Amino acid sequence: AQTPVKVTVTGAAGQIGYALLFRIASGQLLGADVPVTLSLLEVPQAVKAAEGTAMELDDCAFPLLRGIEITDDPNVAFNGTNVALLVGAMPRKAGMERGDLLEANGGIFGPQGKAINDHAADDIRVLVVGNPANTNALIAQQHAPDVPAERFTAMTRLDHNRALSQLAAKLGVAVADIKKMTIWGNHSATQYPDLFHTEVGGKIAAEQVDESWLRDTFIPTVAKRGAAIIDARGASSAASAANAAIDHVHDWVNGTEWTSAAIVSDGSYGVPEGLISSFPVASRGGRWEIIQGLEIDAFSRERIDASVRELEEERDAVRKLGLI
Ligand code: NDP
């Protein structure tokens, strides 16, 4: 029998965790023939709630779910883990300074990175969902010197999926008719959803929409979609965030010709080496590759540079705080 893959979810008792765990256990993360064990990491005060979720997981009687572990110790949670979904983070509270936010998250993602370094399986893959995701991923990566840096990624797949859905609605086409969507930069309001390489019916999407729609409607709608959902639902997007996390890891493991993911920059497209920034990527042989050779027009250049500048500022801030 196949050895189960160990998947660790942090912040497992939270909203995204609740939307995520059942899909992992049902086989949607890795495949319908891949058995899994789940490790649920929580802060001590949320362990009981995680136990409740685990009871529900038991009650689903998922044939692929071979075990559930619940802990507040990262050294246990990441022991032998193959896939780590880092969802738990310190949210920005009203009146919180950026330095305080980064410091609080440094206290979470530094020790988790070290625990991954010391205890995870050799094929560990890490996806950071908890915000500020790119910089949290950088902090974790910097605390894991023995793990190849490319194994640390952050999620921009929800932004990517939101962009697909907005464009499909605008052009009256199916999402499946859209190819080569790209999100560049930081998972934040500065992210840049790029339609200049996106193809619909074999033609460039940017040429099928007004420039004013692209600039004044599309880009801000994608970037501010999270706030629009909070406004409508009275709660933040959890199911779609969980769905995007599933998509990201599924494609990383099983391959894709084109999607968006925040990965460690090798200097491509002028993004400073080492920053964890979103790129157009393919996945081949279980590894992300940045899609090369795209021409970047002036409109896109300006926006990519602005988002990358923000990532550099976040990196410099966590450096100054001694978090990396
Ligand atoms: P959620 O499950 O809704 O969100 C978790 C994180 O995901 C937040 O940082 C959130 O950022 C981020 N996120 C990224 N993309 C999205 C998106 N599109 N929509 C919404 N959120 C997004 O938060 P909860 O408060 O329900 O749960 C968090 C859990 O994490 C709690 O149970 C807490 O105890 C736990 N936790 C665990 C830690 C650990 O395991 N060591 C450490 C810290 C917390 P944003 O806030 O910007 O929306």
UniProtKB/TrEMBL annotation:
One of its GO terms (biological process) is malate metabolic process. It holds the Pfam family Ldh_1_C. The active site is at H187 (proton acceptor). Residues 156-317 form the Lactate/malate dehydrogenase C-terminal domain. Residues 5-147 form the Lactate/malate dehydrogenase N-terminal domain. It catalyses: (S)-malate + NAD(+) = oxaloacetate + NADH + H(+). Keywords: NAD, Oxidoreductase, Tricarboxylic acid cycle. Substrate binds at R92, R98, N131, R162. One of its GO terms (molecular function) is L-malate dehydrogenase (NAD+) activity. NAD(+) binds at G11, A12, A13, G14, Q15, I16, G17, N105, Q112, V129, G130, N131. Its EC number is 1.1.1.37. It comes from the Bacteria. It is an enzyme of class 1 (oxidoreductase). Belongs to the LDH/MDH superfamily. MDH type 2 family. Catalyzes the reversible oxidation of malate to oxaloacetate. This is Malate dehydrogenase. The gene is mdh.
